[in-house]
Design goal:
The complex is a heterotrimer. Chain A is of the alpha/beta class. Chain A has three domains: about 1-190, Dimethylsulfoxide Reductase, domain 2 (3-Layer(aba) Sandwich); about 195-380, Rossmann fold; about 425-535, Barwin-like endoglucanases, CATH 2.40.40.20. Helices cover about 30% and strands about 20% of the residues of chain A. Chain A contains 20 helices and 23 strands. In chain A, α4 packs antiparallel against α7. The model of chain A has no long low-confidence stretch (mean pLDDT about 90). Chain B is an alpha+beta fold. Chain B is built from eight helices and 16 strands. A five-stranded mixed sheet of chain B has the order 2-1-5-3-4, with helices on one face. In chain B, strands 10-11-12 form a three-stranded antiparallel sheet. In chain B, a hairpin with an 8-residue loop joins β10 (about 220-225) and β11 (about 235-240). The longest helix of chain B has 19 residues, at about 290-310. Chain B is elongated, with a radius of gyration of 27 Å. Chain B starts with a strand and ends in a 5-residue tail after the last strand. The model of chain B has no long low-confidence stretch (mean pLDDT about 90). Chain C has four domains: about 25-245, Rossmann fold, CATH 3.40.50; about 255-340, Ubiquitin-like (UB roll) (Roll); about 345-430, Up-down Bundle (de novo design (two linked rop proteins)), CATH 1.20.1440.230; about 445-525, 2-Layer Sandwich (Alpha-Beta Plaits), CATH 3.30.70. Chain C contains 21 helices and 14 strands. In chain C, the strands form four sheets. A five-stranded mixed sheet of chain C has the order 3-4-2-1-5. In chain C, strands 7-6-10-8-9 form a five-stranded mixed sheet. In chain C, α4 (about 55-65) packs antiparallel against α5 (about 80-90), α4 (about 55-65) crosses α7 (about 120-130) and α6 runs parallel beside α8. The longest helix of chain C has 18 residues, at about 365-380. The chains are: A alpha/beta, B alpha+beta, C alpha/beta. Chains A and B meet through α3, α11, α13, β9 and β10 of A and α4, β10, β11, α6 and β13 of B. β11 of chain A pairs antiparallel with β13 (about 280-285) of chain B, so a sheet runs across the interface. One iron/sulfur cluster (SF4) binds next to α15 and α17 of chain C.
């Protein structure tokens, strides 16, 4: 996110989901699309049938590889090298969109400088991808009229996550693929309202609509709108909050609909923090590993029991209706929050979710034209500044949100943790088709549970044979931070030396193992690479 | 370009089929094998229409419009032929509409009504089947109700990219099944439900909906899938006890009538017994139920106390990528305006 | 054994050959089909050389158009026009396909050509490839024709060796390669879209047209598909000129057509005649008339989904359009002749049974409708027909014809419709009078009766009857239980005194009068 905003002025998917079908080339990297975003995968497959070329970069032989024209099986954590290699070839073989670079971007010189040394042979050494495939991919992508890049957490969840994204932005701008229909740079959002949570200011540095908290004008505007004095100091991020608790600076924590014990890296550290915090309130629809630590647990109504809006990956604000009465005594989160605010001396009197949206429209320009009336039938894509605006199908048409697109090329830096004698394997984490996140929802769906009820760590045949491990055996996986047990499946989806686990299951909580080393800018932990040891248990 | 359908002068663009133009203009041409997501199959033949100057009827789903075309969609002879088609399908169908869970939402039934099929004139032998296939937790397959529109097979192949279900045998003995008749769980079925969503008859049905309620008794509410960031629009079908009986979807949205296994079959957690139904307060390491009054007071007291004692920055909140925009807005407003801190974040990055 | 050469008439004088006009078949039987030299010696590959050295593709197409050649695979679509579509279609890759699937039961005209003169087909295809801009061709051939496949393979190798196939043919810069693909064994794989699906390795199921093969054919590339005989005519047209080809035949159907004569006719075999020849000339001239001097009843023309024409149509000149008019079709050129002892309902049932079982199952009318039609015909031939059945049959036949997706379904009802049109009385006889006029339908055959004046009570008939419906004691008069007799006729030849007579003879022959009177008396009493 941080990366795209820096390059383009906005961190969201530049284009719409439907537009994928019209691309001439699609480059999927760091996204196991068929399992994490199946419906987007349908569009990719359709594009393929329509004649588009498909390049998949992934250390694992994910399902999408089956449909790919080219599979770049890179070593985990070598994304920048790979991207730089592609850019090197694009510059070398003159596949640039020079007019576009000149008219719409800045800082191109930096790209030329850095890419110089990333010739295919050098990159092949770092990434393990054959040099000729790098050349082929560069041509496939570079020669396409409309080339679209899709990526997800496989790109961002690294210490170099921001640089990864910046490099992707460079690649797209070099070839003039931003601000164009059916092309673009498209981060796929993992959870259904990540986009909305960001848009609405659930971030320590911005108010709703990405308005900086330390900007005087903005501060004034919100102070007036809400009728209170507001702090202009950037707040703490998730990881900083937990550190703050340890340092006794944060004493009260409110967790609404999240389960950091399973979803955050280095779970043991999180558990300690939750144990320590003076007051913890957790608001959720199910009891969770996190709620176990709470002083007060508040029962929330589920998505089916309330009105509201979600904003999807393509920036579309969509309405959901209350379909059933709240279960038991549960209440919607917004009602709970309002009651608390009023107990603390405020005077909120929203009578419906729709009224809240009207307030959002007033204070957040990108949502300026959104109202329940307008999105009753079909959602609207932001930016939608006023009530006559039809919404925005793709961003940066004619001009970037920040004016000129900015090239911010990066050098390749190896992952924070490398396999060594004690921890000889690389663990990478991700999702499975039948489950979602920490299974708060999917784990309570009997059919989904039946399909996939425990973790099966993926391991290559070569590694399995060496350790005399067979399908279904249990192993002990350990890292510098902890250890978990898991069953294994022996598969050709992972290459030798790499193992894969999902973070869905408490019993085999992958995040006990993962490295909390953060990307310095986006503060995203390195979920995708950590060194582990494996023993038969 | 301009053309005429049923006397109405209409606008169309080159490359559109007669069926597409008709649908755009609210003219309902019967169809069973058509789906906007698929290459036209031309199998059911229900969409036949007459074109002025063309001797035999043509299928509207496969015929592209041309300028000045004059089309009739519901002439007496077309009606007669469609009636024959419906009768032919019914003659080889397990007609048990009285108890069928698809009744009320079944296109075959609708067309039988529309073309006044009271009695099937061509009774005869039926294709032999081995009975209902119940081999997974999500849906059943009943070949005796299948009218061989091939939508399921084509969706599986063309949209999902799998060939989990396919055709076996030829001619009158054709049937839809899996390779070697294996259970769906043993082949590469993704349980996306694409096939179930579009089956026009009771041949593919959600297991959760069997013997629960007649279709017309179900209340439908529109929602957005709570799982991934695609934001599929879904319809919750609710019975009188507020239980989600099945999840359906229609086509004019981001997912275009398509689903994945989580949205289609994984929303039953809403009615789970495990849901939290009362506020809980921890005392001496154990949770006890509490009233909202007590619980909210306790939260407000503690947050107020800590704010007043240590300053707003001693409080923090994790908002949620699963809550609505409005709730995220209120959470950050709560932290900023009420608690006086910007320490609000969520697990966006995870 | 020594033969007396003088007594053998020259082949041209035989009735069978006298009225034929052998053009496509000209080489068959006269050259060694496995020798490319033989073919070349009889002017083979001259046309190809002319095309490649002297003509532009458009000129070739114009020449074919000019000749008036129409597709010999059944549809009768003008070949030149088809080539033009494929030529006009844009695409860097195009295919030319020869349809040698010949799935009609009893048809063997394509086989005759494939086995007798394979090079003529190759030459036609290469010319076609040059004309439309294809550099690759497929011959989709029935797997049950191993000899034809072998000869084609040999021919291809020989042509390659001679530089007539492959790169830069005749130094013209034109490249063309040919592959053979053995058929999947289903009749419907002969339908062009089904055939292409089959080459692609898919289920041989037809797909809707448009898109037409000329625009989106094999592997979605522009393709042209023609029948074996169509291709065989191409070298002749190029060599002899369109004008001389057009002189043959009728205004709208030029050239010749090969027919496969079968059925109750004296001479069976392949006959090539000019278009416009009458059916009478073919059946009574070339075919030598009906076997055993029986009466002609009908001729099924056009294969299993052709139509049955009665004697009043015998003077119809054979061409594409008049056949359609009469309710039949050219099809691939099958002619099955039926004599007085045929039952037209049973004939319709027989052909429908074939197409029904060959339905691919894709579209509703053909898959379900032909089955219901067959069930009705089964009922009628078993004597269980109802009066409404004829109406139902007509309704179904019309619907299947109008609604089906591909040619198989569209033509499947033809035998039923044409017999209903010309022989409705036979249907009625079955339904109303429980009678099969042709004497074919077992359940409707009149049973046997014993002439009490002749019976000597030998009991032979009791022993012969497989279902034990004859009663009688030794040396007493025997009797057949008429109700139960299924008319198998097993007893009749066993009777030493010819006392067993089929019931329907009684009224025709005076010597059985006494049996008739008795019948009537019984009725009066
Ligand atoms: C069911 C069915 C079977 C067919 N079988 C054959 C066949 O065996 N041989 C053939 O040449 N054409 C066959 N055809 C016709 C082809 O579809 C196509 O019209 C023909 O190959 C075109 O060649 P032509 O233009 O040279 O006639 C068949 C058509 C149908 C509907
Ligand atoms: S559920 Fe999806 S994958 Fe399974 S058979 Fe149906 S369409 Fe195919
Ligand atoms: S199962 Fe349903 S969708 Fe599939 S072919 Fe049969 S009727 Fe059509
Ligand atoms: S008409 Fe018959 S053979 Fe042709 S597509 Fe339909 S079912 Fe298949
Ligand atoms: S909808 Fe056109 S043939 Fe089925």
């Amino acid at each position: 996110m941080a990366g795209l905003a820096k390059s383009f002025g906005s961190g969201a998917m530049t284009n719409s989901i439907d537009e994928i079908e019209g691309a001439d080339a699609i480059f999927v990297t760091g996204s196991n699309t068929t399992e994490a975003h199946p419906v987007i995968a349908y569009r990719v497959k359709k594009a393929k049938q329509n004649g588009s070329k498909l390049i998949v970069a992934d250390p694992r032989k994910i399902d999408l590889v089956k449909y790919a024209d080219l599979w770049l099986q890179q070593k985990p954590g070598t994304d920048i090298a790979l991207l730089n290699g592609l850019m090197h070839v694009i510059i070398r073989d003159d596949l640039l969109d020079k007019k576009y670079i000149q008219k719409r971007t800045e800082n191109f010189e930096a790209v030329e400088d850095i890419m110089e040394k990333y010739d295919p042979e050098h990159v092949a050494e770092i990434t393990g991808v054959p040099a000729e495939d790098i050349v082929k991919a560069a041509h496939m992508y570079g020669e396409a009229e409309r080339a679209s890049i899709l990526y997800a957490m496989g790109i961002t969840q690294h210490t170099s996550g921001t640089d990864n994204v910046l490099s992707i932005a460079c690649l797209a701008m070099l070839t003039g693929n931003v601000g164009k229909e059916n092309a673009g740079v498209n981060p796929l959002r993992g959870q259904n309202n990540v986009q909305g949570a960001c848009d609405l200011g659930a971030l320590p540095n911005v108010y709703p609509g990405y308005q900086a908290v330390d900007d005087e004008e903005v501060n004034k505007k919100f102070s007036e709108a809400w009728g209170v004095e507001l702090s202009d100091e950037v707040g703490l991020t998730v990881t900083e909050i937990f550190d703050g608790i340890e340092e006794d600076e944060v004493k009260a924590l409110y967790v609404m609909g999240e389960n950091p014990v399973l979803s955050d890296p280095d779970s043991n550290h999180i558990r300690e923090a939750l144990e320590q915090v003076e007051f913890l309130v957790v608001q959720d629809i199910f009891m969770s590993d996190t709620a176990e630590y709470a002083d007060v647990v508040l029962p929330a109504a589920s998505f089916a029991e309330k009105d509201g809006t979600f904003t999807n990956s393509e920036r579309k604000v969509q309405k959901l209706d209350q379909v059933i009465e709240p279960i038991g005594e549960s209440k919607s989160d917004w009602e709970i929050l309002m009651e608390l605010a009023n107990r603390l001396g405020h005077d909120w009197d929203y009578s419906s979710a729709s009224e809240i949206m009207d307030e959002i429209a007033r204070v957040s320009p990108i949502y300026g034209g959104i109202s329940y009336e307008r999105i009753e039938e079909e959602g609207l894509q932001w930016p939608c500044p006023d009530y006559d605006h039809p919404g925005t199908k793709y961003l940066h048409k004619g001009e970037f949100s920040r004016g000129l697109g900015q090239f911010n090329p990066a050098e390749y830096i190896p992952p924070a943790e490398k396999p060594d004698e004690d921890y000889p394997y690389v663990l990478t984490t991700g999702r499975r088709l039948f489950h979602f996140h920490t299974r708060t929802m999917s784990g309570n769906s009997p059919g989904l549970e039946e399909q996939y009820s425990e973790e099966l760590m993926e391991i290559s045949l070569a590694d399995a044979q060496r350790m005399e491990i067979e399908d279904g055996d249990r192993v002990l996986v350990s890292s510098r931070r902890g250890e978990v047990e898991s069953k294994v499946t022996v598969t050709d989806r992972v290459p030798e030396g790499l193992v894969f686990m999902s973070f869905h299951f408490a019993e085999s909580a992958a995040n006990v193992l993962t490295n909390p080393a953060l990307d310095p800018v986006a503060k995203i932990p390195e979920y995708k690479v950590c060194a582990v040891n494996i023993e038969k248990s | 370009m301009k053309l005429t359908i049923n006397g109405e002068k209409l606008e169309a663009t080159e490359g559109q089929t007669i069926l597409e133009v008709a649908q755009e203009n609210g003219i309902d041409i019967p169809n069973l094998c058509y789906s906007p997501e698929l290459k036209p199959e031309g199998a059911c033949r229900m969409c036949v229409v007459d074109i002025e100057g063309v001797a035999d009827p043509v299928t509207a789903c496969t015929t592209e419009v041309s300028a000045g075309m004059v089309v009739e969609t519901e002439t007496p002879s077309l009606k007669k032929m469609r009636k024959v088609l419906v009768e032919l399908m019914l003659a080889n169908h397990d007609v048990e509409c009285l108890t069928c869970d698809k009744a009320g939402d079944c296109k075959l039934q609708d067309y039988a009504y529309r073309y006044s099929v009271k009695k099937v004139r061509f009774e005869g032998e039926k294709t032999e089947f081995k009975g209902i296939k119940d081999d997974n937790p999500f849906f059943i397959r009943d070949n005796r109700k299948c009218i061989l529109c091939y939508k399921c097979v084509n969706l599986c192949k063309q949209v999902q990219g799998e060939a989990s279900i396919n055709l076996e045998n030829r001619g009158f003995d054709t049937r839809v099944t899996t390779a070697f008749d294996l259970p769906l769980e043993e082949i590469n079925c993704q349980f996306c439900g694409l096939c179930v969503n579009e089956c026009p008859t009771g041949a593919l049905m959600e297991k959760s909906a069997l013997r629960k309620a007649r279709n017309w008794e179900l209340k439908k509410g529109s929602t957005i899938c709570p799982y991934c960031g695609v934001g599929c629009e879904l319809e919750l079908n609710i019975d009188e006890n507020d239980q989600i009986v099945k999840v359906t979807t229609n086509s004019d949205n981001v997912n275009r009538g398509q689903t994945c296994v989580k949205g289609k079959f994984g929303l039953d957690f809403v009615n789970s017994e495990e849901r939290l139904t009362k506020p809980l307060i921890k005392e001496e390491g154990r949770f006890r139920e509490a009233s909202w009054e007590e619980a909210l007071d306790k939260v407000a007291d503690n947050f107020g106390r800590i704010r007043d004692e240590f300053g707003g920055d001693a409080t923090a909140a994790l908002s949620s990528a699963k809550c609505t925009n409005e709730e995220n807005y209120l959470m950050q407003k709560f932290m900023r305006a009420v608690m006086g801190t910007n320490s609000v974040d969520h697990c966006a990055r995870l | 054994m020594a033969t007396n050469e003088e007594n053998i008439p020259s082949y041209q004088d035989l009735d069978f050959y006298k009225s034929q006009r052998r053009l496509a078949l000209a080489n068959c039987g006269f050259i060694d089909p496995e020798s490319i030299e033989d073919y070349i010696a009889s002017d083979g590959y001259q046309a190809l050389s002319k095309v490649l050295t002297e003509m532009k593709p458009q000129e070739v197409i114009d020449e074919v158009k000019e000749s008036g050649l129409r597709g010999r695979g059944g549809g009768g679509f003008p070949t030149g026009m088809k080539w033009q579509f494929a030529y006009d279609a844009s695409g860097d890759k195009k295919y030319i396909i020869c349809n040698a699937d010949e799935g009609d039961p009893g048809a063997f005209m394509d086989r005759g050509l494939l086995e007798g003169d394979p090079h003529s087909i190759l030459e036609g295809m290469i010319i076609g490839g040059y004309a439309i801009g294809a550099d690759e061709g497929y011959i989709y051939i029935r797997a049950e024709y191993p000899l034809a496949i072998k000869r084609l393979e040999k021919a291809i190798t020989a042509a390659e060796e001679k530089g007539l196939l492959g790169e830069d043919i005749f130094g013209s810069g034109f490249n063309f390669k040919l592959q053979i693909k053995a058929g999947a064994g289903a009749f419907v794989c002969g339908e062009e879209t089904g055939l292409m699906a089959s080459i692609e390795g898919e289920r041989g199921m037809p797909t809707p047209r448009p898109p037409f093969p000329a625009n989106k054919g094999l592997w979605d590339k522009p393709s042209n598909i023609n029948n074996v005989e169509t291709f065989a005519n191409i070298p002749i047209i190029i060599r002899e000129g369109a004008a001389s080809f057009k002189e043959l035949g009728t205004e709208d159907s030029s050239g010749t057509k090969v027919f496969a004569l079968t059925g109750m006719i004296e001479n069976t075999g392949l006959a090539e005649v000019e278009m416009g020849t009458t059916m009478r000339e073919i059946i009574f001239g070339i075919g030598g008339g009906i076997q055993d001097d029986k009466e002609f009843k009908a001729v099924q023309i056009g294969g299993p989904s052709g139509g049955c024409l009665p004697d009043e149509k015998l003077d119809l000149p054979i061409d594409y359009d008049s056949l359609i008019e009469a309710g039949a079709m050219m099809g691939s050129g099958g002619l099955v002749v039926m004599d007085e002892n045929s039952c037209m309902v049973d004939v319709a049932r027989f052909f429908l049974n074939f197409v029904q079982s060959e339905s691919c199952g894709k579209c509703t009318p053909c898959r379900e409708g032909t089955r219901r039609m067959l069930e009705i015909l089964n009922r009628i031939t078993q004597g269980e027909g109802e009066e409404e059945d004829l109406e139902l049959l007509r309704t179904l036949a019309e619907s299947v014809k109008k609604l089906s997706l591909c040619g198989l379904g569209k033509t499947a009802p033809n035998p039923v419709l044409s017999t209903l049109r010309y022989f409705e009385d036979e249907y009625e006889a079955h339904i109303k009078n429980d009678e099969c006029p042709g004497g074919v339908c077992q359940n409707l055959l009149p049973g046997y009766i014993i002439d009490y004046e002749k019976c000597i009570g030998c009991t032979y008939c009791i022993d012969a009857c497989p279902i034990d419906v004859v009663d009688g004691r030794l040396e007493e008069i025997h009797e057949i239980n008429e109700e139960d007799c299924n008319a198998c006729g097993a007893c009749e030849p066993e009777c030493p005194v010819d006392a067993i007579i089929q019931k329907n003879y009684i009224e025709h022959f005076p010597q059985y009068r006494h049996l008739l009177e008795e019948d009537e008396e019984e009725v009066e009493a």
